[in-house]
Amino acid sequence: MLTLIDLVGLLPLLIVASTAVLVMLGVAWRRHHGGTAAVTVSGLALALASLPLASAAPSSPPLMIFDGLALMGSALVLVSGLFIAAMSHGYLAGYRGPREEFYLLLLCAVTGALGLVASNHLATLFISLELLSMPLYGMVAYSFRTERSLEAGIKYLILSAAATAFLLFGMALIYARTGHLELTALAAGVAGSPDPWILGGAALLLVGLGFKLSIIPFHQWTPDVYQGGLAPATTVLATVSKLAVFLVLLRLVLVAPVFGSGWLLGLISLLALLSMFGGNLLALFQPDLKRLLGYSSIAHMGYLLVAVIVGGPLALETTGVYLFTYIVATMGAFGVIMHVSGTGSGEDASGLHHYRGLFWHSPWLAALLTLSMLSLAGIPLTAGFFGKFYIIALGVEGSRWWLVGGIVIGSVIGLFYYLRVIVTLYLREPGMQQAVADAGRGRVEKLALLIVAVSILLLGIYPVPFIDWVAGLAWAARLL
Amino acid sequence: MELGFYLSGLVAVLATVGLISGSSPVHAVVYLIVSLIAVALVFFALGAPFAGALEIIVYAGAIMVLFVFVVMMLNLRPEAKRDPLWLRPGYWLGPSLLALVLLVALVALISDGQAGMTIDGELITARDIGLTLFGPWLIVVELAAILLLAALVTASHVGRRNKPRGNRNRGGTR
């Protein structure tokens, strides 16, 4: 039964969900863009503030688990959600049509992500995953009068439904063999020699989750949806969605020994290698910044899969550090895109030519984009370096030499296109004086961008407190 | 029981193929109804009468009626042109045949079993499901509620009329 004490652990999720209801009631009463954004941001901030309280919860409600992994995931989800909500205000200011629904959908997606990272049961896993994806269809297709946005939304909807079918079928197969849906019971049920049905079910689960992570054979939707979707929606896809799904995949692998079986791990290794090379090679000559970031996210998910393959005590810590550094850098890059574009003119400024000579009229934005690109490339003194360092250390410790080689080669290829973006920023274009429309962007957005920039630098220069925090959570999660 | 299971499963697959291959929404809905009834029969054959009954009441009954209403309200073609088309055998033959197969399977199952035979195993009743859903699974119900809210908001946003309305700040028209 769900008791009152269980609700303490659920506090962040409850706060975000009730903020969503509050926003809905507010929209029904009176539309006010600024007010809606303020309510959203304060709800997310309140949920973030309630995390320490939730971590001290004595028990977990049924079907959920609040361990270090869930806590880490919730913190990352809420931080990204806060950033996106803050940036959306400026971005949507130029949007013609109702803007308030976007925040409502964002809050619903964040609720789903919070449920997903804490799910301990295939039913919660499934419903939360759907709750994470469903608002995203609406968010990607939000400016549905522009062709690309609607196309991206429909593409994501249909392909995501297909992936969900795979996921459900995998769950059905596993349930048919073990008779359990609870992850821990399921792990005990498959503890013996795994038979083909369970392996097949696990592989189908991997397909379903791999789609959301856009691992290589399931990646075709990524560039189109990234390019066509509204920049804040794409940011949700690149941060909240990816990290929550990845953490749940990690939880499955850590809990259920079936994922540790030889050929399934071999399969994941192959997918990881494919994603590292494929993502980087596809991004190589990409003239569109959003597509480029989409391909780059494929490569990053490939690197991260190494943590899943190696497993063990260090994997959790590695995942935490890498995910955070990846998310901060992605938020920086998309923050600049959101700031430069606006939906007033319809499509986002996503082509690289929009950013040609950005440095010469808005040096701060160019600096942030440079910093994000360097961090994504894993250059020292930025956050990305430590993420990459951890992943390579983990691969070396697990003596997965193929994967380590893949990471190194992938990073070298990656360096080329990240630097290509940076070079574009500093090219001086004669006669090009179209300044970025800076009007209508409030202080909140600038503050959010500043915080992201500072945290990229801070994590690159002095990461010890952050790493200690992640290590503490990872240690707490291992006890369970 | 095996016969009923496989036959209904086959009918469900065929009806769904018919659903996605047709071009007229009304005929697609008819196929969908057949498909849902077939899935309900699959549930009955597996010994889950409650799920089967729900499938018929909720999906084939309520939601499909809504679908038909929406299709009729959209009314894509003028009435006069459409009526004779409906009566062409190519349109109603497929779903009727599939429904007939289902009927045969049902009759065969009923005539096959002796009277008084019951489903063994744990019979799941509405009470059990209610107790589970509003006991330990409460959080799943709540998450599903938020999911429906998100779906509703998405649908109402994307299904909006061409002119943006109710926007006090800008009120721009296209």
TrEMBL record, chain A:
UniProt name for this protein: NADH-quinone oxidoreductase subunit N
PANTHER family named among the record's database cross-references: NADH DEHYDROGENASE
Keyword list, A-Z: Cell membrane, Membrane, NAD, Oxidoreductase, Quinone, Translocase, Transmembrane, Transmembrane helix, Transport, Ubiquinone
NADH:quinone oxidoreductase/Mrp antiporter transmembrane domain mapped to chain residues: 119-414
NCBIfam families reported for this sequence: NDH_I_N, PRK05777.1-1
Listed EC numbers: 7.1.1.-
A GO MF label: quinone binding
Membrane topology: Multi-pass membrane protein
Record keyword Oxidoreductase present: yes
Subcellular location: Cell membrane; Endomembrane system; Membrane
From TrEMBL, chain B:
Main location (coarse class): membrane
EC number, UniProt record: 7.1.1.-
Pfam families assigned to the protein according to its UniProt record, in alphabetical order: Oxidored_q3 (PF00499)
Statement: the UniProt record of this protein carries the keyword Amino-acid biosynthesis: no
GO molecular function per UniProt: NADH dehydrogenase (ubiquinone) activity; oxidoreductase activity; quinone binding
Entry coiled-coil feature ranges: none
Substrates-to-products reaction catalysed: a quinone + NADH + 5 H(+)(in) = a quinol + NAD(+) + 4 H(+)(out)
Membrane-spanning segments: 6-22, 29-50, 56-78, 90-111, 131-155
InterPro entries named among the record's database cross-references: NADH_UbQ/plastoQ_OxRdtase_su6, Nuo/plastoQ_OxRdtase_6_NuoJ
Alphabetically ordered keywords of this record: Cell membrane, Membrane, NAD, Oxidoreductase, Quinone, Translocase, Transmembrane, Transmembrane helix
Keyword Cell membrane: yes
Gene3D superfamilies: NADH-ubiquinone/plastoquinone oxidoreductase chain 6, subunit NuoJ (1.20.120.1200)
Enzyme class: translocase
Membrane topology: Multi-pass membrane protein
Subcellular location: Cell membrane
Role: NDH-1 shuttles electrons from NADH, via FMN and iron-sulfur (Fe-S) centers, to quinones in the respiratory chain. Couples the redox reaction to proton translocation (for every two electrons transferred, four hydrogen ions are translocated across the cytoplasmic membrane), and thus conserves the redox energy in a proton gradient.
Family label: Belongs to the complex I subunit 6 family.
Record's subunit section: Composed of 13 different subunits. Subunits NuoA, H, J, K, L, M, N constitute the membrane sector of the complex.
Name of protein: NADH-quinone oxidoreductase subunit J
